[in-house]
Amino acid sequence: RKDNQTMVYEQAPLPYKSLEPHYDDRTLDVHYNKHHKAYIDKVNAALKEVGMEDKDLEYVLGHLDEVPEAKRQFIANNGGGAWNHSFFWKCMAPEGERGEMSPELRAAIERDFGDFKTFMTGFADAAATQFGSGWAWLVIDPATKKLSIMKTLNQATPINEGKFKPLLTIDVWEHAYYLLHMSNRPGWIKTFGHNLVNWNFVNAEFAKFQ
Fold first, then answer.
1. At residue 152, what are phi and psi to the nearest 5 degrees?
2. For the residues 163-169, what does the mean pLDDT come to?
3. pTM over 0.85
4. Can you say how many angstroms the Cα of residue 94 is from the centroid of all Cα atoms in its chain?
5. Rounded Cα distance, 195 and 56, in Å
6. Tens digits of per-residue pLDDT, 28-70?
7. How far is CA 44 from CA 34, 66, 81, 148, 183, in A?
């Protein structure tokens, strides 16, 4: 979120107080207040340094060639971390608030993946096989309306390429799940897929491109 007076990016409040028992409060606190905040602070300072603080962060990440080369990778890393986490928080919701997949989204998933189970298996596989740190995504190509699954390394984001728009993501950096799941990334992925996905949000993002 951009503050129009100071022209810096503020960390939006979390859309929930807790995701227990599926995402522990201690991890949520550290992940949001330490990791995410650090990305926000660093990208704000870097954008000011290169005179791009008036640019929308999504625009910057989609036009990294406009960023001075000396700060390009730093802004890609920290801007991606800021943007990815802001999106990630909205992809989860507490029990009773997650909703169900809309008929329109389900039809698109069945068209492009065959069925919902095949999609969920592919999404989980992408998350599990992302080497090292990174993210798995459900994305849409606004030009063709086609859905696809992709994964990105570290804090890279689908919007870097300019072609895709994210609909759903899971963070597979170890700091996202280590306190509860230790090194059990598959356990974290299963918990996310079955107990945390905010389908109301995913439905709304998908509807923007219909």
1. -130, 150
2. 95
3. yes
4. 17
5. 33
6. 999 999 999 999 999 999 999 999 998 999 999 999 999 999 9
7. 15, 16, 12, 31, 32
Mapped to the 3 state alphabet, what secondary structure does the chain carry?
CEECCCCEECCCCCCCCCECCCECHHHHHHHHHHHHHHHHHHHHHHHHHCCCCCCCHHHHHHCHHHCCHHHHHHHHHHHHHHHHHHHHHHCECCCCCCCCCCHHHHHHHHHHHCCHHHHHHHHHHHHHHCCCCEEEEEEECCCCCCEEEEEEECCCCHHHCCCCEEEEEEECCHHHCHHHHCCCHHHHHHHHHHHCECHHHHHHHHHCCC
* CA–CA dist 119, 101 (Å, integer): 13
